[in-house]
Write a structure and sequence with these properties.
The chain is mainly alpha-helical and 261 residues long. It is built from 11 helices and 2 strands, in the order αααααααααααββ.
């Protein structure tokens, strides 16, 4: 009876511990959902720098946006967005139809090229330029609509669309807007304003990491460690004794451990 009760209590404690552990992991993932960042690589770095200079937008903003979108390594978002700047088909084709898009070599996505190796969004150079071009257009629209020009606001316009973001700021989000926000990370039970705050916070975290403003925690830990040189005078070697058991007749001795002084 006592053994059964003990097993039940042990199982209950284990389940409680696992529950707390899962909650801790989930809470941590809400604060930062990014993996250790080692850089985009020289190719993407050069494209970002060129796009920032060409369109007179913040390079730090672009780096944060591109890292947050997580498409430079070929990832595809749940919305089907592809490429360095994670463009949906609609946004890409709309921008490709403009003279500014055509000037940088943008071509429309067709039914034959969609999702294939010939999808124009796969061109990292043009996709990065298109990301800078879209940011420049958003800045112009922000000024016309009275929206504050900030890195986080530019990301939100890129992430959920300018019109959707504008309606969210006005408290006029539609059912389709909210559906789109859910596809882009809105948690269950979140209000629109809470989602904007949450998403902007995530972006700021990614921007800081993309611009190496946050030190890697592992490297920080190593910096705080101090190596202490061992002192040979404090080390005492105790020679193990040799003893022969009476029941052994093979001439082999066993070692007996003597605790050091």
């Amino acid at each position: 009876m006592e053994i059964t009760l003990l097993l039940k209590n042990t199982l209950l404690c284990t389940l409680i511990f696992l529950g707390l552990f899962v909650q801790a992991v989930e809470a941590k993932s809400d604060v930062t959902d990014s993996h250790t960042f080692y850089g985009f690589g020289t190719e993407i770095d050069s494209y970002i720098q060129h796009a920032a200079q060409h369109y007179h937008v913040s390079e730090k903003m672009l780096r944060g946006l591109i890292k947050m979108e997580d498409g430079w390594a070929g990832n595809i978002s749940p919305t089907g967005a592809t490429g360095v700047g994670q463009f949906t088909i609609g946004t890409w084709n709309w921008l490709a139809a403009k003279p500014e898009g055509q000037a940088i070599g943008m071509h429309p996505i067709t039914a034959r090229t969609k999702g294939t190796q010939f999808d124009p969004r796969r061109n990292k150079y043009i996709n990065t330029l298109a990301t800078g071009l879209l940011a420049r257009w958003h800045i112009k629209q922000f000024r016309e609509r009275g929206i504050t020009v900030s890195d986080a606001n530019l990301y939100m316009a890129h992430n959920i669309g300018l019109d959707s973001f504008h309606r969210a700021l006005q408290g006029k989000s539609t059912a389709e807007d909210i559906k789109n926000m859910r596809r882009n990370g809105m948690k269950r039970g979140m209000s629109v304003s809470a989602f904007l705050t949450y998403q902007k916070g995530r972006y700021e975290q990614h921007k800081a990491e993309a611009n190496f403003l946050i030190k890697n925690s592992t490297l920080q830990l190593t910096k705080n460690l101090n190596w202490v040189e061992p002192n040979d005078k404090d080390v005492i070697w105790v020679q193990p004794q040799m003893v022969q058991h009476k029941f052994r007749n093979d001439g082999l001795d066993d070692l007996v451990w003597i605790n050091p002084q």
